[in-house]
Amino acid sequence: MLAGLSSNDVNLQLEAATQFRKLLSIECIPPIEKVIQVRIIAHFVRFLKRFDCLQLQAMWALVNVANHSPRYRDLVLGCGALLPLLPLLKDHAKLPMLRNATWTLLNFCWGKPQPPFYLQIKHAFPALAQLIHLHDEEVLTDACWALSYLSDGTNDKIQAVIEAGVCPRLVEFLTHPSPSVLIPALRTVGNIVSGDDLQTRVLML
């Protein structure tokens, strides 16, 4: 499988990526440590930079590692997975890819302790600010959950969310007909009003 990932043959790469993704999705004690030991995460990060069918396999595999624990999430981020993901969040013409990329970003933002904020996650705010202006409920839901995780912290984290310019749109979501969008938007707003007086005032204007 590792040889397949390292191959120059696209078909072999895809087959190996699929096998690794299935291996990582096993619910009963996923063999993540063995996968990390053979250093395949770097291969999947490299696949994110490609514009063919390997992108989707790479996202699923990286999420299967990242959502296992904050330690594994930080390991994936430390391998540089965030930056090559960001361009995929701008391709609004391919909705299935956009949905998967937003879901991947959500998994990079979840968990406590929070992911490396200023070294990594701060680069995601421009993308999140654009995503919440789309009209796909699945994308909106995942983007709002990501913002709720990122705003659940100290005042400097809240300020970073405010400076992303997302507050007016979050207020609009408080009347959204879908609970899947309303609930994470409400949680994010709640996190923001837990900040200092100036931060709370932003939502009152």
Map the helices and strands.
Elements: H1 2-6, H2 10-24, H3 32-37, H4 41-48, H5 54-66, H6 70-78, H7 82-85, H8 95-109, H9 125-131, H10 137-150, H11 155-163, H12 167-173, H13 179-193, H14 197-202
What does this structure look like?
It is a single chain. This protein has 205 residues and is mostly helical. It folds into 2 domains: 1-80, Leucine-rich Repeat Variant, CATH 1.25.10; 95-205, Leucine-rich Repeat Variant, CATH 1.25.10. It is 65% helix and 0% strand. Helix 4 packs across helix 5 and helix 5 runs parallel beside helix 8. The mean pLDDT is 87. This is Armadillo repeat-containing protein 8. It comes from Dipteronia sinensis.
Q: How would you sum up this structure in a few lines?
A:
This protein is mainly α. Helix content is 65%, strand content 0%. It comes from Dipteronia sinensis.
Radius of gyration: 18 Å
Number of helices: 14
The CATH homologous superfamily of the largest domain = Leucine-rich Repeat Variant
CATH topology of the largest domain: Leucine-rich Repeat Variant
Count of discrete structural domains: 2
The chain-level mean pLDDT equals 87
Largest sheet: none
User: What is the molecular shape?
Assistant: elongated
Beta content: under 5%
Order of helices and strands: HHHHHHHHHHHHHH
Distance between the termini: 56 Å
How many extended strands?
0
CATH architecture of the largest domain: Alpha Horseshoe
Features:
single chain, 2 domains, 14 helices, repeat, ARM-type_fold, protein transport, mainly alpha, Leucine-rich Repeat Variant
